[in-house]
Write a structure and sequence with these properties.
1 helix; mainly beta; 218 residues; two-stranded antiparallel ribbon; twelve-stranded antiparallel barrel; 14 strands
Amino acid sequence: MMKPFAKALVAAGLMTASVTASAGLSANIGAMSDYWFRGLDQTGAGNGASMMAGLDYDQSGFYIGTWAADVSNGLEYDLYAGYEGEVEGIGYGVGVTGYFYTEESFIDGSYEELNLSLSYGPVSVSHNIGTFKDDTAGPDVDYSFTSLTGEYAGGYLTYAVYGDEVDGDYVEVGYGLTYEGLDFGVAAIFPDEDASAANNWVSSSNTVTLTIGKSFDL
């Protein structure tokens, strides 16, 4: 799906088939029972299902793309670019991502990130360094987000933690498969017990999300 490792697991079961798409132009479309990303409910207090779609171009390890999702009354749209490669079985990636929101959405601002990733076999780690730029009178917020993921036979387990000026951590476990050309996924997300803190960017309750999607080579 999305090339930056930061967004690779956003739609749980849409990960493997989409992230490893062949070089060239590709598109994806999907739906999520409730759009959660990085331990946080992105539709605002469980406001229901979200539709999502993206467009990617990948050539010789370089990628550029865009992705959008319904968030409550507005729209999130992402722009990203970077490079992914492999040396002696060790995968690596470096890229940049911008997360933007339409005026009617519940987020008044945008996020700008540097995305770094490493992987070996079924284990991968990502480290993302970003700034939330507040469109209101509030100050900008610097943050980091680090995740460790293990995958096996369609299943995955992720532990992730925020840093810098932001707190929060969570565990996510999920499973994805492809059937009749469609990608299906289920994920259970368990935020930390102090998720109500003012500087904590994870939601305050556990949840289970369901996804369905389709990828196309153009």
